[in-house]
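Hello, quick one for you while I still have it in my head. No rush at all, and the record is pasted right below.
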Amino acid sequence: MKSAVFYSSEDIRYEERNRPVIGDDEVLLKLRACGLCGTDIYKATHETVPPGTVLGHEIAGDIVETGKRVTNVQTGDRVYVAHHVPCFTCDFCQKGFYTMCPQFTATNVEPGGFSEYIRVPALHVKHTMGKLPKDVSYEQGAMVEPVACCLHGFERAPVHPGDSVLILGAGQIGCIQLQLAKYYLAGKVMITDVNENRLLQARSLGADIAFHPAAEPVENRVMKETDGKGADLVIISVGSSALLKEAFQAVARGGTILVFAHFPKGDVPIPAERFFNDEVKVVGAYSSHPYHYREALELLKAKVVNTEKMVTHRYPLSQLLQAIECARHPEGESVKIMMYPDE
């Protein structure tokens, strides 16, 4: 089989690999679509994974082989699958912090989503795999995991009807979050980005206000749009720790800042007095967990999250490097990129 294999930030090879062999409780999946995630781009760009790694985890495909003890799916089923599984029993899981579970990042599919065939281990078959209805496309199936990530974020920082929401970053995650915020009856959804094409896309997906932060200071614009109150919820969807300061400037008294992006290591000065004086909350949200996959699928099926509008580019696996270059272009037109087997 063929896989797109990472070796360095400028070296991703489309090469032959052995097709995985499955066990009695596992399945073999033929890839039909795999989303290019921001974490894939980050790992490839910053070389945070070892050479020889196959990235990709937003997966949809067809089951072509099942182990003899598998009963919940069968050959021919169209499915989605996610890449991490908690244990459901440790102290973290008991408290609902499934993504903090020690087992969570120890599980994965083999070799990764950017491959023609993928072995799905037993825990994933049981907990993170689901069938796609006939009226749900493979692209929608590949969006189940990122939508579930955003649902986990809103679980940590809920939107209440009438809330004002500010999203810093109109990339693929920011655009999912704005659609969900509207679904949760946010009163006004504002979004920023340095890419004008993404701002146009955000407007088409329902953003009430979409603006470039260089055109007007974010704090000024948010205060103008909220009658001086500030945003009830500020979501940081870009991996820049400098945005934490911007978030504090824009958040309302009693508001919440949701950190939904990977920050580089290092300290960031923040106005600590706001915790006491204004009861501002800062929470983080990492990845997704199995309790949100069914909900994500239903939201995609109902087009609450509009995959057709979000997917702007499609590439074969052999052009993964070109897809990553397209995604990280500062003035590019990409929002969501989907990868497909070359056939």
Q: What stands out?
A: Residues 158-284 form a domain with the Rossmann fold fold (CATH 3.40.50.720). The mean pLDDT is 97.
